Amino acid sequence: MNLRLYNARILPFDTADARIIAGELWVKGDRIALVGDPNGAEPPAFDREIDCRGNLLLPGFKNAHTHSAMTFLRSFADDKPLHQWLHEDCFPMEAHLTERDVYDLTQLAVLEYVSGGITAAFDMYKFVEKIAECAIDCGFRIVLCGAINDYGGTKQSLRAEHDAVNGKHPLVSHKLGFHAEYTTSEALLRDVADLAHEYREPVFTHISETAAEVEDCISRTGKSPVAYLDSLDLFRYGGGGFHLVFPMQGDIEIMKARNLYVCTNAGSNVKLSSGIAPIETYYEAGVPVAIGTDGAASNNCLDFFREMFLVSGLQKLTVGAAAADAIKVLHSACSTGAKMMGLDDCDCLAVGKQADLIMLDLHMPNMQPLNNIAKNVVYSGSKANVALTMVAGKILYERGTYAIGVDPEAVYARANEIIARIRKAEGR
Amino acid sequence: MNLRLYNARILPFDTADARIIAGELWVKGDRIALVGDPNGAEPPAFDREIDCRGNLLLPGFKNAHTHSAMTFLRSFADDKPLHQWLHEDCFPMEAHLTERDVYDLTQLAVLEYVSGGITAAFDMYKFVEKIAECAIDCGFRIVLCGAINDYGGTKQSLRAEHDAVNGKHPLVSHKLGFHAEYTTSEALLRDVADLAHEYREPVFTHISETAAEVEDCISRTGKSPVAYLDSLDLFRYGGGGFHLVFPMQGDIEIMKARNLYVCTNAGSNVKLSSGIAPIETYYEAGVPVAIGTDGAASNNCLDFFREMFLVSGLQKLTVGAAAADAIKVLHSACSTGAKMMGLDDCDCLAVGKQADLIMLDLHMPNMQPLNNIAKNVVYSGSKANVALTMVAGKILYERGTYAIGVDPEAVYARANEIIARIRKAEGR
């Protein structure tokens, strides 16, 4: 399919400022063929031409940490702190999930992603090959993250899923990873490090999400989680940490030395009463910051507008009103997330890049007047503004209509069936 | 108009729990004629019957503190703390506003309110009669709040606007009020108290929004703002405070003795780096809590979904994960706000009450599965879920279409004209 999006405002993010240009954007197959002024360029034969009516095109949001299939626990496991929430609600309920359940619950997440302008997810959950299959079937871009730990997974299984997913299809890839320092033995961590060295690949994991986790790691190992994991040489080829709410002295130096990314999950950290990550400090130190929703069991929605306001607002609250301004946060959401996930072709709107983009409707009261469009998006935007979501040149969502190959009502019905079945099995 | 909304889920909030019933809701003129099971009741002749498809009807959100016409400063005055924001951006820009500007900018806010499920606003701004006229023309419900202070307004002007608005039209009313303790001389405060005693009316104002304001009041008067204002006998007939981020020792006892309401404005307090109001403490003490967006110059959107998540989440962050649960917060949003504003007929869905209600679309991915619908609304909802907004029996918004008597595009154009004119006048 070749598409022409014309009469647009375009925020390309080919630089870190939020420069907005007027013009059009051409899509040829899965890639961007033109951004801005056609300037007499020869147009390909377009299958469709869309009048953007002055609305805003920008790179899609990159959800750099999520557990997509946890949608079944939305509004089931609330109002509890992390440890209690995990052990009382998540673990026992998740034990009942089948591969088919995970496929179907990931579909529900994908519906939510595309309706909210998210074009890629960095997904950590079990049955990664099933999740990859779901992503391919939906036309959605998913990077799987290894999640092995003492309760499941081995060096062999991590290698097997890494090999099985990578190269399978352009929409899916796999990164080495494990659940967390506090759920993974040193022997298994050394196995992950071995794989990382063999593949020359980065490693990703939950790090320093709660104060208790950090204290516990220090008392066991004498080191912060960042320092402990680094001492096992896990980050020789980079990687990143999800959450990183509580960096200790020296951690930021390690993160910079190892080219680690932070993915912040403000909504989840708030709702689980974990804390506020020092995002402004990361920005100032030059640590790249991506944004994630975490799973729907904790957050409870997969909504980047809420996340972006929280990332900015919580820094303003704790550091000062000038902290974490809209432009920095929007760049994190659209661009840095892509780089963290290894999606170097999805970080901006430029010729030759993947056509992973969204259109935000500015003809809505929350976007008016147009004093500063990028600030409007972060400080005032909502998923109601998402008019179109495109992944790899294919429109997956357009003004309430989905094109991911499944009837949304069937997905909702399945999600309700799954949770009903598991509640019955658990007697709750 | 008589309307039948059938095949609905209904969260009536006629009690403080979030009981949801199945059934239908009849509207006769501006009032509710039936809720739940018709049980053989004789239906009136309906002008329209709407199949709700299992979607949720609930009382509309009551925006209990806002400055509607500040929409012109959206994304213009950002990333600054309150004092600097007010004196550098708000005051000089606002000085240029005409009565016509305020009418037009209030229209823009009303578009945003109804698209986000807000059915009434407690509006503090200049030119109150013009705002009342706008509300009546739009069919929207506005309670005006007096805002006199040392820079404008007298006992006479406050009396005049109170008398002019009250009784003018069922959609508008006026409450006595002043801007804030720190902008209003003791002589003028005593004038407001005199009026309150004469009319036997409550009084509303900004109170204890920032730590600096509280410290300054204590150093000048030896009392906290709450105690100081109470010492002037302003609250003999009740009233309430907007913000109340920093109550001092003894303040809550005064608030309870005087039947004061708190209206919290979490988004604004976050963005201006003011602080987190102790909402869970208010809930526990039995102080009634309403919710407001504040103006678009600080927040920057007028979005109750964002507000509700912030009100809940910030308490979870500071008090614990169980604090300020979804049901309490939703009750504050739908019901307590109405009571604070004196809208006793708009607090719940029951026979004889005003038909001020909204329909939320549950057939959307962020509302599935239906583990707990009220929690879905607060923890996962967005204005994209608002399918219908009705005020006084009239549908003002329905799935992207507005019926407030004006073309939204004309409102957007006027808002852009106004800010362009004022920027030019101010040379910025």
CATH class of the largest domain in chain A: Alpha Beta
pLDDT average of chain A, as an integer?
97
Relative strand content of chain A: 15-25%
Q: Main beta sheet of chain A, described?
A: 9 strands, mixed
Q: How many β-strands of chain A, per DSSP? A: 17
Domain unit count of chain A: 2
**Most extensive interface, residues per chain?**
A-B, 75 and 75 residues
- CATH architecture name of the largest domain in chain A: Alpha-Beta Barrel
Give helix % range of chain A: 25-40%
Principal-axis shape of chain A: globular
The CATH superfamily of the largest domain in chain A is Metal-dependent hydrolases
Uncertain regions of chain A: pLDDT < 50 for 5+ in a row? none
Computed over alpha carbons, the radius of gyration of chain A is 21 Å
Put simply, the count of helices of chain A is 14
For the terminal residues of chain A, how far apart are their CA atoms? 49 Å
Q: Supply the helix-strand structural class of chain A.
A: alpha/beta
What is this structure, in a nutshell?
With 428 residues, chain A is of the alpha/beta class. Chain A is 38% helix and 21% strand.
